[in-house]
Design a protein that fits this description.
The protein is α/β, with parallel strands linked by helices and 261 residues long. The chain contains eight helices and nine strands. β3 and β4 form a beta hairpin. α7 packs parallel to α8.
């Protein structure tokens, strides 16, 4: 929620709902100058049926719709097509959410909130990446065409993106069949912490990245991935330590585009 808080403390109208916080941002503001809240494994809320290991796969408590109304504008979806002949959001285990259902949520939200834009990063779930079928590429095209897709723009302003969905597809060639709708990952300056194995290492890397971001100008949209895998701890256990620390740390800086928690 840091992006919303920053707008309010800088003179925004506190009566404006988090559902439409981009209303407060002028069209001419560069997206790379915004702090945009994002979530990790965004749709990993409920599992498809009971599974004893779900606590290790679950990363969020709020649904996609609830996150949108909380102000989240960047979403991370890992996909697999090896469950029930459909493309599902997965995190090793299968969630109750299909890609089509996720797209419908984003599309309905943007239709009713034209001041906003949504960024969605999609890639094959690591565990199931080798099972991806060619026929799923065409299925993805059909699903994504239901979205008001934004074509790639270098160094976009907020006004360029209102009412649209920005798709960042990693290792998903099917998205290319829609035309040039997948934003290249090279448009982002990324910092990820998932493989550092401990929270102290993640905190050090994040702090170094934030300090560099304040000192060095960058024309790309900065991306900060603050999730980290720590042994056998559940994601929510790690988040209880990392999220409060990140919120405190972000209040000490003035520059960051994408926040990915």
């Amino acid at each position: 929620m840091q992006g919303v808080e920053m707008q309010r403390t800088r003179g925004g109208d506190p009566s404006v709902s988090c559902s439409a916080w981009l209303q407060q941002v002028p069209d001419s503001v560069l997206v790379r100058d915004l702090a945009i809240p994002g979530t990790h494994n965004s749709a990993c809320v409920d599992s498809m049926g009971f599974h004893i290991g779900w606590n290790w796969a679950r990363c969020q408590q709020a649904t996609l719709e609830a996150q949108l109304h909380m102000g989240v504008r960047y979403f991370d979806l890992r996909l697999a097509d090896c469950f029930h002949d459909d493309i599902y959001v997965t995190h090793t285990l299968c969630t109750s959410m299909t890609l089509a259902q996720s797209v419908e949520v984003f599309s309905c939200f943007l239709e009713s909130h034209p001041s906003e834009f949504v960024m969605v990063c999609m890639k094959k779930d690591w565990k199931h990446r080798g099972k991806w079928k060619r026929t799923s590429d065409a299925r993805m095209v059909q699903i994504l065409e239901q979205l008001p897709l934004s074509t790639p723009i270098r160094d976009p302003m907020v006004g360029d993106l209102r009412g649209q969905c920005i798709v960042v597809a990693l290792d998903l060639p099917g998205v290319g069949l829609c035309g040039e709708v997948s934003w290249r990952d090279s448009l982002f300056s990324r910092c990820d912490c998932w493989d550092l194995q401990n929270t102290q290492g993640a905190k050090l890397k994040v702090s170094a990245y934030l300090e560099e971001a304040q000192q060095v100008s960058c024309e790309r949209i900065r991306f900060l991935g603050c999730n980290v895998v720590v042994g056998v701890k559940w994601p929510q256990m790690v988040a209880k330590e990392m999220n409060p620390w990140l919120r405190t740390r972000l209040k000490q800086v003035s520059l960051l585009s994408l926040i990915h928690i």
